[in-house]
Design a protein that fits this description.
- There is one protein chain.
- The two termini are 16 Å apart.
- Helix 5 crosses helix 6 (115-143) and helix 8 crosses helix 10 (208-225).
- The longest helix is centred in the C-terminal third of the chain and has 38 residues, at 305-342.
- The protein is mostly helical.
- The protein has helices spanning 2-30, 33-38, 43-70, 77-93, 104-110, 115-143, 146-149, 156-186, 188-198, 208-225, 230-258, 264-278, 289-297, 299-302, 305-342.
Length: 343
């Protein structure tokens, strides 16, 4: 028990350490005393920070709304927010490539949703998130030219790399979304058969049991979502859009307060690229990678490395460290429920 607790503590401390270490490294290279002295916290900047906090709350509202809708209001608003915050906390202490959605099944079950139904709901939310990225990307590229979206300037190698990695990750998202879409909405039994067939291949056989369970969950999810009304789909996808747009608008609010000359629409569009890239971050919650990516990728819009670092720190404080604190505060209630259930 003591070793489990120490491992869990390490999971919380490690991302904080990585993030602060990268900030210290960037601070050492990009610190400019003039930039810090030039900062003016007046009504305009205070309003921008308040707006950023409101948008971050909008992200949580959207996801709580979605949890409440997909459970047919079995969850109260309070419990839906609690599940949302715990999923965000899990995302903060696990590599971005893993994400916090895997433990959503556990958190929903702790709130009284059966394990089978919680698995079905989690797969549905996963499809909705992936579908948002697939749908929003072509719209974004219709409204913004590619060279503006991926930046321009002297860091051509970095910007070219960003563009290549973005399209590779986005292609993976499209492929995964097609698989989920076909499995959940079109041909669940065929997708289940195909997955089981693929994982009979000897190099993949070790994962066959987990894949068989996934195939079964896909079929169960399909049977449920096909019975849902059009209004239900509009609500859950609308909640998904609200949560993602609110997350992007946090950076817009910070730019409005500290770099008002930057194009708000371009700042918003680049957030889409940032979050796609962070999906493959190997560090817990994108620690270190997020700070470095923000300061480098937004550098041409900000014009000052020192100011870019300040905005990156504010962004991460609102979008990351808040959820670490919230998760730590909520953890005792979840483990208390678990112990009570075992007793």
């Amino acid at each position: 028990m003591a070793s489990q607790k120490s491992n869990f503590t390490l999971r919380i401390i490690l991302p904080v350490f990585i993030g602060l270490a990268v900030v210290a490294w960037l601070f050492h290279d990009d610190f400019n005393a003039e930039v810090w002295r030039s900062l003016k916290f007046d009504f305009h900047t205070a309003a921008a920070i308040i707006a950023a906090v409101i948008f971050m709350a909008g992200r949580d509202f959207g996801l709580a709304w979605r949890f409440r809708t997909i459970t047919d209001r079995q969850l109260s608003w309070r419990r839906a927010f609690r599940v949302d915050l715990m999923c965000a906390f899990t995302s903060a202490i696990t590599p971005s490539a893993v994400g916090g959605s895997a433990l959503a099944v556990f958190y929903l079950n702790r709130e009284g949703v059966s394990v089978g139904r919680a698995t079905t709901l989690t797969l549905t939310t996963l499809l909705l998130d992936e579908l948002f990225f697939v749908v929003f990307c072509p719209v974004l590229f219709l409204l913004l030219p590619s060279d503006a979206l991926f930046g321009s300037g002297q860091q051509n190698l970095f910007l070219d790399s960003v563009q290549i990695v973005f399209w590779l990750v986005y292609s993976g998202i499209v492929a995964y979304t097609i698989l989920l879409f076909c499995g959940i909405l079109l041909w669940p039994h065929k997708v289940e058969w195909l997955l089981n067939r693929i994982f009979t291949w000897r190099p993949l056989r070790r994962w066959s049991a987990g894949v068989a369970e996934t195939g079964h969950n896909i079929v169960a999810t399909s049977a449920w979502v096909r019975s849902c009304s059009r209004r239900w789909w509009l609500n859950v996808f609308g909640a998904t859009v609200v949560s993602w747009f609110s997350r992007y608008l946090v950076v817009n609010a910070l730019f409005w307060g500290f770099v008002p000359a930057a194009s708000g629409f371009l700042v918003f569009g680049r957030q889409f690229v940032v979050w796609v890239l962070l999906m493959i971050s190997p560090t817990p919650g994108g620690s270190g990678v997020s700070e470095w990516l923000f300061t480098t990728y937004y550098g041409d819009l900000i014009g000052s490395a020192g100011m870019a670092l300040i905005l990156a720190m504010m962004w991460r404080l609102l979008s990351y460290y808040v959820y670490l604190v919230a998760g730590v505060l909520l953890l005792p209630s979840y483990f208390g429920k678990l112990k009570k259930g075992k007793k």
